[in-house]
Write a structure and sequence with these properties.
Elements: E1 3-11, E2 16-24, E3 33-42, H1 44-51, E4 62-63, E5 67-75, E6 85-89, E7 104-107, E8 113-114, H2 121-144, E9 153-155, H3 161-172, E10 177-181, H4 187-192, E11 197-200, E12 216-221, H5 225-233, E13 235-243, H6 257-261, E14 265-268, H7 276-289, H8 292-297, E15 299-303, H9 307-315, E16 322-326
Parallel strand pairs: 9-10, 9-12, 10-11, 12-13, 13-14, 15-16
Antiparallel strand pairs: 1-2, 1-4, 3-5, 3-7, 3-16, 5-6, 6-8
Length: 328
Amino acid sequence: MATFKAIRIDKADKGTTAQLAQFDEAELMDGDVTVRVEWSTLNYKDGLALTGKAPVVRRFPMIAGIDFAGTVEASSHPQWKAGDKVVCTGWGMGETHLGAYAEKARVKGDWLVALPQGLSARDAMAIGTAGFTAMLSVLALEKHGLSPKSGPVVVTGAAGGVGSVATAVLSKLGYHVIASTGRAAEADYLKEIGAAEVIDRNELSAPAKPLAKERWAGGVDSVGSTTLANLLSMTKYGGAIAACGLAAGMDLPSSVAPFILRGVCLLGIDSVMCPIEPRKAAWQRLASDLDRTKLSEITHEIPLDEVPGWGAKILAGQVRGRVVVKIL
């Protein structure tokens, strides 16, 4: 095809525009693998790019979308051949490299991971960067030494994409999961996917004390700011919090007290430039440790042409769980 459908972001007099358009194949960027994209997904960063609320997009025009799953169409990379099923998340797609909301993508073969056995392309995008980030967080907590015997774990932003997958995975692994959310109406949903307790995010929104009552052995935080500061102050001796998001802000109004008086660790999680071996490990664990029934429960499907309108929804906290985008 000389042209293909894509969600194109362009500079405008005020901000940016994002709309479904025809994109010329000749405009695809350099890469040694061309993929027929079948499924993508909607992440918080996609919402920022689609709405222009943050300077996520670094070149124009840009095809939005930071994740895809599909089939290799052509390859000069030694690891991949036509017909291979692949997943790609991060690496600057939708930011500096033309992204995933398109019928075709051209990327570096070193960015790709083989679709794990037992996962469909749709499943992989139901997971997406949000679920991948959640699993990287779980792996980091395990590496720190946490196990279900260590005590409860807390998940913030639990009704969102990262939080939903983290809750489902941690509960399947046997952890007592305390889910924090600002959406009281989602309590039943969170319990269905594995939360043992649901708390209101307001419990974590007041200015943090240097040290507060110990409540959990670890946690996964996608919120940041005061919420993360409170999590740290309430973490048990020797515990750890995996920080992977900034929905409430980039600041961290905390103190050194949790670190030097309780030996608490703050584990930073980056999914964008994560090396390939940890990527493979995370995807294999997702294939085995994420209940498919729960994955189905947290997933909603939309067509490509509805993507621009969903950008504002995810930023407003109006999206529950995961959104998959049907491309072909």
